[in-house]
Design a protein that fits this description.
This protein is α+β, with helices and mostly antiparallel strands. The protein has one domain (3-121): Nuclear Transport Factor 2, Chain: A. It is 32% helix and 44% strand. The protein has a six-stranded mixed sheet with strand order 2-1-6-5-4-3, with helices on both faces. It is globular, with a radius of gyration of 14 Å.
């Protein structure tokens, strides 16, 4: 499976709510970084940390959350996605960057419009 195919499978698992399969495509020491200065910003170490302290909050913090992939670019071990998020309290675009090593996601960096995210969170 190419890095692009692996990353896109993760978005499929996320959209289906299949967190078990999503966890399996991440390296045990994967690093997740969310830019900005809001409640969900920071660095998460390992998928369980990211799941518990970030992903689990999405349906609560962003009612009727939806994510659409606008574009994907892949080069070597890096995959970049241009994303659009919508929710009752949000309409924003973002760039997601992944590093894939040994057939697993090793790094995931979210470059959000952090001001829009902070406003949606009431931060």
């Amino acid at each position: 499976m190419t890095p692009k195919e692996l990353v896109l499978s993760g978005y499929k698992f996320f959209s289906e709510g299949d967190m078990e399969s999503l966890s399996k495509i991440n390296h045990e020491d994967a690093l997740f970084t969310v830019n900005g200065d809001h409640d969900l910003s920071g660095t998460y170490h390992g998928f369980n940390d990211f799941l518990t302290n970030f992903l689990a909050h999405i349906p609560i913090k962003f009612p009727n959350f939806d994510l659409v992939i606008l574009n994907v670019v892949s080069e070597d071990d890096r995959v970049y996605l241009h994303i659009r998020y919508t929710a009752d309290n949000l309409d924003a675009e973002s760039v997601h960057m992944f590093v894939v090593k040994g057939g697993l996601q090793k790094e995931f960096h979210i470059f959000d419009d952090s001001q829009k995210i902070a406003n949606a969170l009431g931060s």
